[in-house]
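Reviewers of the previous submission asked for a worked example of the structure-prediction workflow described in the proposal, so we include one complete record here. The input consisted solely of the amino acid sequence. No template or homolog information was supplied to the procedure at any stage.
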Amino acid sequence: VQLQEWGPGLLKPSQTLSLTCAVYGGSITTSYYYWSWIRQPPGKGLEWMGVIGYEGSTYYSPSLKSHTSISRDTSKNQFSLQLSSVTPEDTAVYYCARVQGRRGGMDYWGKGTLVTVSS
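From that input alone, the workflow returned the following structure tokens.
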């Protein structure tokens, strides 16, 4: 399984960040697996943002829920992240990953994409 994420590298404050993750070698609708977004701000640890399940259910970090949305396109085997009203604090490397079960470990990761929020 391989995951590849992409999106704009630079945003201005208040804009909406949109990232997409393409999955190769496995279907996002395969039972048991969930698909997650994680980010790592410069000099900080990993932060789990949310997940979408094989059946389309979504779960979000409480701290980000109000301006985060995860969706999917099963025809393209892709899932996406939208983060609205970004601020410089949203500057981070964003990763997508496969999760084993609703609360399991993440066994496959994308390489990450750097998003910088700056005016």
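Residues 72 and 79 are 4 Å apart (CA to CA). We consider this example representative of the routine output the project will generate in years two and three.
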